[in-house]
Fold this sequence. Notes:
The protein has helices at 171-180, 196-200, and strands spanning 24-37, 46-61, 72-78, 83-85, 88-100, 119-134, 184-195, 205-215, 220-229, 234-246, 249-258, 261-270, 278-285. With 286 residues, the chain is mainly β.
Amino acid sequence: DFSDNEKYYSFEGIGLKYSGKQRRIGFSLDNKWQLKLRKTATLDERKINDFFTIRSGISYDFESEGNGFSNISHSLDLNPKKITFGMFEINTSPSGSIDQETYELKFKDWNHKKWDYAVSNWTANITSKLVISDDADFVDYFPLPENRFESSGFMTEDTLSVEDEQIITTIKELDDLNRESKNWSISFTHTYKTNKAQYDINDYSSDIRTSASVKLTKNWSVSYDNYINLQEHRMISHSFTITRNLHCWQVYFKYTKQEDYWNYRFQLFNIKLPDALKFRTSDHKR
């Protein structure tokens, strides 16, 4: 019970909770669907866990003097498997929610068209992503045979909680792991959001984020990111990042601009001890 805290003032950044006494119990029902794709001539049988999830919930407050039940909340999530075709990868994630006023529901007639579902709010979100990535040849500035850190176990773990087969202890093992990843990629992520209040006034939120990265060499990589508001037709922010590997050290530089504000950050840190051995500087301007 925090009702007595109402007499205290709240300061900027500091506040006291002063709600009335509550004793709640919640009820929820989850319904998860699994999708199975049968075997084809080129693909084995596949299945998608939690492809379709519906969740409904309600709570009751024993301390409430009036109506004790809360609104009924429903949520819906779709998790379709991403589609990969060569260097292209497509994924979409729709989701939504509905809130109903429990004591305003009316089902007094057999005709469902006359029912009052008492929807107080609903939301709809759709996130779609397209990734284009592939491998590309690059020049080795520091060939591994000439690297004195090649066989030294400077990355040996000091704990027994990690499985032996998961430990990377040498530069060569780290280099082999890096070669398995894509050398360049371009991604586009579009997000659409709206709710009941926005829909009533024909309003919505629509934006797209673009990211491009390329590994020029084994030791040099650059990336560019931007964020565009499609509804207002303006760029919100964009950033440029350069990363340079120096044996067991890494140099990181990032420049970000958001309308009239810009900042940069420069870091030099040890790969093994990134928090202990770190040198950094930054600046900004409006």
